[in-house]
Amino acid sequence: MMNSLWKTILIVDDTQTIRVGIRHVLEEAGYEVRTAQTGKEGLEVIQKFGLPSLAIVDINMPEMDGFTFCAKLHNFSDVPVILLTSIDDEQTVVKGLREYAEDYVTKPFRSAELLARIERVLGRLEEPSHKEGSFNNVETRIDDRLTVNLPQKYLLLAGDKITITPQETKFLHILLKHHGRTVSTPFLLQRLWPGEDAFEERLHTLVYRLRKKVEENPKQPRYILADWGRGYSLYTETE
């Protein structure tokens, strides 16, 4: 099993027995677990406690269904999702995998299989295995000058609060997950604009606008660093 310590899983399911059962399995495996019984509550949990490493989401829920929750979550973050549901018709499965989720598990499920799928998703998306300090909290300290609040979409820059767009927030989340390593341009395009024909110019524009907000000198960036021909990385004080 991959190192699950310091990884947080959010379970969003309106059935209490499912939430309790999955929570027990995940905590036994070493994950930190948070739960919500509706999509609306799931978003509130994120605002209060920060972004999880992964979300396990039911589709049929009151007030806000799982697809709507995923769309709202991915509007400002790159949290991977595993859909866990009793719906197994092909059209729904394909829609879920194409638009919202990294994987799809039908109920009833086997605990060992769910754990294996979680490990596979986190491993494929290169979640860092060390303790970050981390973006799983509401605020992420980059250094003495800069703190990022991903759930609430703002920066604290030398004490000043600066609002960032959902797309800028998602970009920072991706870079934070890779902790100082270069994230390739194709990967960024695919994660930021899934299902779209996005080109490098669109990414360069996003970076240009974000640098104007965060850098003292955007032409000599300190935080958002380009590895020309490859992609981008984010400076953090703990590198």
Describe this structure in words.
Mean pLDDT is 90; it is low at 127-133. α4 links the parallel β4 and β5. The chain has a five-stranded parallel beta sheet, sandwiched between helices. Strands 6-7-8-9 form a four-stranded antiparallel beta sheet, with no helix packed on it. It folds into two domains: 8-124, 3-Layer(aba) Sandwich (Rossmann fold), CATH 3.40.50.2300; 139-234, Arc Repressor Mutant, subunit A. It is built from eight helices and twelve strands. The chain is α/β, with parallel strands linked by helices and 239 residues long.
TL;DR?
With about 240 residues, the protein is an alpha/beta fold. It has helices spanning about 15-30, 40-50, 65-75, 90-100, 110-125, 165-175, 185-190, 200-215; strands at about 10, 30-35, 55, 80-85, 105, 140, 145-150, 155, 160-165, 185, 225, 230-235.
Key features?
239 residues, alpha/beta, Rossmann fold, Arc Repressor Mutant, subunit A, 2 domains, five-stranded parallel sheet, four-stranded antiparallel sheet, 8 helices
Strand-helix topology:
Layout: E1 8-12, H1 16-28, E2 32-36, H2 39-49, E3 54-57, H3 66-74, E4 81-85, H4 90-99, E5 103-106, H5 111-124, E6 139-141, E7 146-149, E8 154-157, E9 160-163, H6 166-177, E10 183-184, H7 185-192, H8 200-214, E11 224-227, E12 231-234
Parallel strand pairs: 1-2, 1-3, 3-4, 4-5
Antiparallel strand pairs: 6-7, 7-8, 8-9, 10-12, 11-12
Helix pairs in contact: 2-3
Shape summary:
globular
Report low-confidence residues grouped into runs of 5 or more. Answer: 127-133
Helical coverage, percent range: 25-40%
Mean pLDDT: 90
Distance between the termini: 26 Å
How many structural domains can be distinguished in the coordinates? 2
Q: How would a textbook summarize the main sheet?
A: 5 strands, parallel
β-strand percent reads 15-25%
Q: Can you list the strand order of the major beta sheet?
A: 2-1-3-4-5
The helix-strand sequence is EHEHEHEHEHEEEEHEHHEE
Query: At the first level of CATH, what is the class of the largest domain?
Result: Alpha Beta
Q: Find the count of extended strands (DSSP E, 2+ residues).
A: 12
Reported CATH architecture of the largest domain: 3-Layer(aba) Sandwich
CATH superfamily of the largest domain: Response regulator
CATH topology of the largest domain: Rossmann fold
SSE-based structural type = alpha/beta
Number of helices: 8
Radius of gyration using CA atoms only? 18 Å
